[in-house]
Design a protein that fits this description.
The chain is α/β, with parallel strands linked by helices. It is built from 13 helices and nine strands. The longest helix is centred in the first third of the chain and has 20 residues. The structure holds phosphoric acid mono(formamide)ester and norvaline (NVA). Norvaline binds next to helix 7. The site of norvaline has 8 residues, from helix 7.
């Protein structure tokens, strides 16, 4: 593990596709270790004196708090930079922003619309860049999801995850993450809201290596059958508010409800990246019910993001 940790230092975290299954396991193991240290009250100032710049052009509760509290617990400091406050919002280029921040901070986390912009930032930054969500991917979320599933099930490989709903950023990162880790993943999406072709192709290629089966179906109950984990996300993501009515019509029936629960294994766990729109993609009863682990999942954002920062921006000794 020490060898693999060293290989992670200085890297960007833009997509789980850039990491091997063994490296993803190191992130998860480190997150579990940091969680145990935090619960035991053992100081773990692995990033003492280090600073993370956090650029947000979209709202956030979990991601912002997890990174900000996380680096504080690691002995470092975070800077919250909303688009309204920094010159990027007034037209300063991504490349110049990357080069300036690299002279002053030890890592940059960014949440924004365009994935290409995050890739551009990473190309020009001399410090690690962490993708805190784009319209295309949400890899830090899925790292915490994998950690949560492993905590509850004791393993990842061989499990079946069913995702019901929009084939957007969270679905994309789940496809990549599950297929890397040898988990079967079935998505049920309405026509026109399926995941992007190249993501499916990448997941199928990962699956050929890891033994994971990747499937896309139309029927939510077919996806849910015998699932160990059920997952959903909002019907309209940030930036798609204008499409809400149209999406509500298209996604009717794509709901994590009692019928989906009944089709899954009796010991199924229910995940949701949050925020949730109860009564749309998930029923109140399932959200609040005994199979739901959504708040464990939300808490694990803290531990998983601490692992990402510690491994990319410092060391874990
Ligand atoms: N799941 C997630 O990323 O939540 P926030 O939008 O609150 O950060
Ligand atoms: N798909 C959602 C995820 C929020 C964490 C969005 O992009 O708004």
């Amino acid at each position: 593990m020490a060898d693999l940790s060293a290989k992670l230092a200085g890297r960007d975290f833009l997509t789980l596709q850039d990491f091997t299954a063994a490296e993803i396991s190191v992130f998860i193991a480190t997150a579990r270790d940091l969680k145990a240290r935090q619960k035991a009250g053992t100081p773990h100032h692995l990033l003492a004196g280090k600073t993370l710049a956090m650029i947000f052009t979209k709202s956030s509760t979990r991601t912002r708090v997890a990174f900000e509290v996380g680096i504080y617990q690691l002995g470092g400091t975070a800077l919250f930079l909303s688009e309204r406050d920094i010159q990027l919002g007034r037209g300063e280029s991504v490349a110049d922003t990357a080069r300036v921040l690299s002279r002053m901070v030890d890592g940059v986390m960014i949440r924004t619309f365009s994935h290409a912009e995050v890739e551009e930032l990473a190309r020009h930054a001399a410090v690690p860049v962490i993708n805190g969500l784009t319209d295309y991917l949400h890899p830090t979320q899925v790292l915490a999801d994998l950690m949560t599933i492993e905590e509850h099930k004791g393993r990842l490989a061989g499990l079946k995850l069913a995702y019901i709903g929009d084939g957007g950023n969270v679905a994309h990162s789940l496809l990549i993450g599950c297929s890397k880790m040898g988990m079967d993943i079935t998505l049920a999406c309405p026509a026109a809201y399926e995941p992007r072709e190249e993501i499916l192709r990448a997941a199928l290629a990962n699956g050929a290596e890891s033994g994971s089966r990747v499937r896309l179906v139309r029927d939510p109950l077919e996806a849910a059958r015998d699932a160990d984990a059920l997952y959903t996300d909002v019907w309209a993501s940030m930036g798609q508010e204008g499409e809400s009515a149209e999406r509500r019509a298209a996604f009717k029936g794509y709901c994590l409800d009692d019928a989906a629960l009944a089709a899954a294994r009796p010991d199924v766990i229910v995940l949701h990246c949050l925020p949730a729109h109860k009564g749309e993609e998930i029923t109140e009863a399932v959200f609040e019910g005994p199979r739901s682990v959504v708040f464990d999942e939300a808490e694990n954002r803290l531990h998983a993001h601490k692992a990402v920062m510690a491994l990319l921006m410092g060391n874990t000794d």
